[in-house]
Amino acid sequence: MRFLRLSFAVCATALAVAGCPKPSAPTDDAGVTAAGESETAAADAGPGPASFTLQYALPDAGLEVIPVVGEEEGRPLIDSTSTLELRSTLVLRNYRIRLFDEAERAMASDDSAEESPNGLLYRISLPTPLKTGHKYTLVIDAQTGTSMTDSQGREVPDMRIPFQVSGEKEKPPPPAKKKQRRR
């Protein structure tokens, strides 16, 4: 019996001493690296995050750049076109690129993507030119899951690139009148 009480006392003492570790105090040099180390780490990380350029094709003038701005900054005006090109400085993984009209409907298009060491070239060819006076938004987001990544493995945030086609807004054609049959 005495042996049982002694071993219980030893176990209780051991648990009291080793139970929960004391919180460690932060050290003064935590997270601090020498200047040479941080420069080397930055050089090893490779190029910066992916950046995008959106262009549109004009029949006679070649390609014109659409400024990449947020929706809160307004919509840049472009000429009517049926070809858009999106370029990124890095190749993207798990991405989806869609063009929406002002009613937030995806537009039908024939798309092609080319990957190279210089990045991604994504061409959108529309069956008909964009309508004058109408607003459009190019959306770049993740195909599956919650995020897309670049070729360096870094997450790339979703983007919305708004723009508007210059000119007077085209009115939709009036609905066709139905002929009534008389009996």
TrEMBL record:
Biased composition (Low complexity): 30-46
Keyword Signal among UniProt keywords: yes
Keyword hit for Signal: yes
Chain residue ranges for the region called Disordered: 22-47, 146-183
Coiled coil stretches, renumbered: none
Keyword tags: Signal
Signal peptide per UniProt: 1-18
Protein name: Lipoprotein
Species per Swiss-Prot/TrEMBL record: Archangium lansingense
